[in-house]
Amino acid sequence: MTCVPLPSALPTRHNSKMFGLGMIALAAAMPVTAAHADALQTRIVATARATPTVRHAFRRTLAFERTGAPRKTYVEQFDPSRAPAERWSLISIDGRAPTPKEIAKSRKANHGPIPSYAELAAWFGSPATRSEVGGGVLYRFARLPAGTFKIGSHDASADTQVEALVNTSGAVPFVERVRMTSNKSFSVMLVASLRSITVDQRYRLLGDGIVVPSDATSALTGAMMGKAGTMQTSTSYSEYRAIR
């Protein structure tokens, strides 16, 4: 399993203590290419699988808040032309320049895999119902493949429903929006519980034909030591610049 920002919204160094919970993860699994997938699903999986993850530099702005804590905003820069250990750099915290200590801590942090459209290849070919909508196709997945969606050691894949909207208005169809929802409660680390998880992710097509993350939001509700709480995160991606 590989910890990711869901599909790019929760950096691991910031979310490890929400309600005292573990980290959310998506499987770095082989793409699903089941016989039941229709032609459009198969095309989307192939496109996602072929999407490069280190072609663009970009800026990521993350804002998150949880019960009992002030809102925090982080701005980071990703540059694939730099050495692997230096690709992520911390630009600001709550609008101010980071201190040398904060920069050093960020450099040592586990940033997880690079946010990418390629993540969809792990599950988009799984069973789904299809309906035509204005300018696109909406797929509904009753569950995700086992091992795809994890919170700490808990595999929430079977209890997670997904809606994915494919934009078919242009020459290249692509998944424009993904919404994941899980409302089945479960315990984490004996002292915490999660009641619901909602994640919304949007993608956009760049001029060079590559689909990239655009923005994401997530909302979690649960309790820690019997005290109810929530955590909300919003992430935006900007200033894409082709490097490779």
Task: Describe the protein.
The protein is mainly beta and 244 residues long. The protein has one domain. Helices cover 10% and strands 44% of the residues. The chain contains three helices and 15 strands. The protein has helices at 12-15, 39-50, 100-108; strands spanning 2-3, 24-26, 56-66, 72-78, 88-93, 129-133, 136-141, 149-151, 154-155, 161-167, 174-182, 186-188, 192-205, 211-224, 227-242. Strands 3, 4, 5, 6, 7, 10, 11, 12, 13, 14 and 15 form an eleven-stranded antiparallel sheet that branches. It is globular and about 50 Å long. The chain starts with a strand and ends with a strand.
User: What is the radius of gyration?
Assistant: 18 Å
Shape: globular
Instruction: For the record, give the distance between the C-alpha atoms at the N and C termini, rounded to a whole number.
Output: 27 Å
Task: Look at the helices and sheets and give the structural class.
Answer: mainly beta
The largest β sheet comes out as: 11 strands, antiparallel
Order of helices and strands: EHEHEEEHEEEEEEEEEE
User: What share of residues are in beta strands?
Assistant: 35-45%
- Helix content estimate: 10-25%
Give the tally of structural domains. Answer: 1
Chain-averaged pLDDT: 84
Number of helices: 3
| Poorly predicted parts | 1-25, 27-35
DSSP, total strands: 15
Keywords: Signal
Signal peptide: 1-34
Protein name: Outer membrane lipoprotein carrier protein LolA
